[in-house]
Amino acid sequence: MTDATTTQTLKTITRFNEAFNAHDVDGVMALMTEDVVFENTSPPPDGERFVGQEAVRAFWQEFFDSSPRAHFTAEDVFAAGDRATVRWRYSWGNGHVRGVDVFAVRDGKVSQKLSYVKG
Fold this sequence. Notes:
By secondary structure, the chain is α+β, with helices and mostly antiparallel strands. It has three helices and six strands.
């Protein structure tokens, strides 16, 4: 049996992934808190950290503009309370990588998205 918080977290992550694959920056940002923290997969080893709506929005806008064929396939999604993990495959046309996002959700919005990639 899934508790209400876990159910809400899974719904938020599903909506986030749908907006992401639609390259809908407004939709993505509507699902992120004002103080959102996003850590990108690059540059290695720790990735770049973005904090707040303005910084994260600018990153997503540039990302979608420079990667018009970007698509994430969720291979596995699980949540416990306000935390979720998504194992994904990111493809851009001629290649792909696999990785994991670790999310925190607060009040139905993503407050933290920490991204990790294989190799």
